[in-house]
Amino acid sequence: MKEKLEQIYKEAKEQIEKIDMTQGLNDLKVKYLGKKGELTEILKGMGKLSPEERPKLGSIVNEIRDSIVEAIETKEKELKQKELNKKLEKEKIDVTLPATKITRGSKHPINRVIEEIQDLFVSMGYDVISGPELETDEFCFERLNLPKGHPARDMQDSFYITNEYLLRTQTSAVQARTMLDYGGNKPIRMICTGKTYRREDDATHSHQFNQVEGLVIDEKDKNVSLSDLKGTLEIFVRKMLGEKTELRFRPSYFPFTEPSYEVDVSCFKCGGKGCNLCKQTGWIELLGAGIVHPNVLKMNGYDPEKYGGFAFGTGIDRLAMFKYGITDMRYLYTNDVRFLKQFDRFEK
Ligand code: FA5
Fold this sequence. Notes:
This protein is an alpha+beta fold and 348 residues long. Helices cover 40% and strands 20% of the residues. β3 and β4 form a beta hairpin. The radius of gyration is 41 Å and the shape is elongated.
């Protein structure tokens, strides 16, 4: 039996030596050490031996088993190292290759303009306020001096959800909300930026667009006048579009301001000569503004005898068109990466 065991050990060692792949080594493990392996078979037959012979043979079998395990483990390490060396040889890294480009998103032009407007007005002491996009008829129209059936409601083609709720057509709705929140006895200096909705669609009109509303209210003796409004709008437009931008103040009509104005900016596409974008006029309308109507003050808790001020509302998308020379507003909403990527260069 002892000779047989020595023979097994010799054979195992020779075979382990010759192996040059880990898979082959696994087969040898099964052959010698597995449940049906040669050593296990011998151990099973030990029952037939005398009680004196059993421990002797047991210890020889264990010794041989340990030696085979050790030989296999040594070989395993050797093979693994060899395989790793081979792999490293094949997979050489060329450090001179250009790195994989990591593509980076860029801020949407509308968000850029919104942030710029907010920074500018905050620097002039304004608060930034927000209001709901799903608005009530009361705040969008009635509290702005536009009762039901008023003909000026036709100026804005609205998306009504129910008889009372609609998608707000103008951020002016936040004027009324702010006046009520401030309780009728505090000065207000606020802007509100946000989405607005109308049933319109062409190169300079979208069904969903963004506006910024501005509202300044103070006591009458603080004299928040038309010239303050004009000066504020000139600073606003020139800071956003450049100091040389041409502005035109035109008398207009809004039910919530009296007097009312619209401000046009010279057409960036034709430089004021007249083209299809500006409908041959050389000007494009940018905003509406005026002195807050006494009825609006009264309806929203401010005494028009004691308080007064001005308001304005601008299209942010229109401003982005001027700022970046975009000839069709719809480019702003198609999410075409080729279009959006061009704004990377404006990254601060
Ligand atoms: C208003 O919305 C008034 N609430 C502005 C206002 C506020 C006047 C406070 C007085 C006091 P208007 O409908 O003209 O006004 O719109 C204001 C600006 O929003 C326009 O000058 C234009 O720049 C932009 N605008 C209007 N409709 C659209 C549209 N469909 N798509 C993109 N921009 C638009």
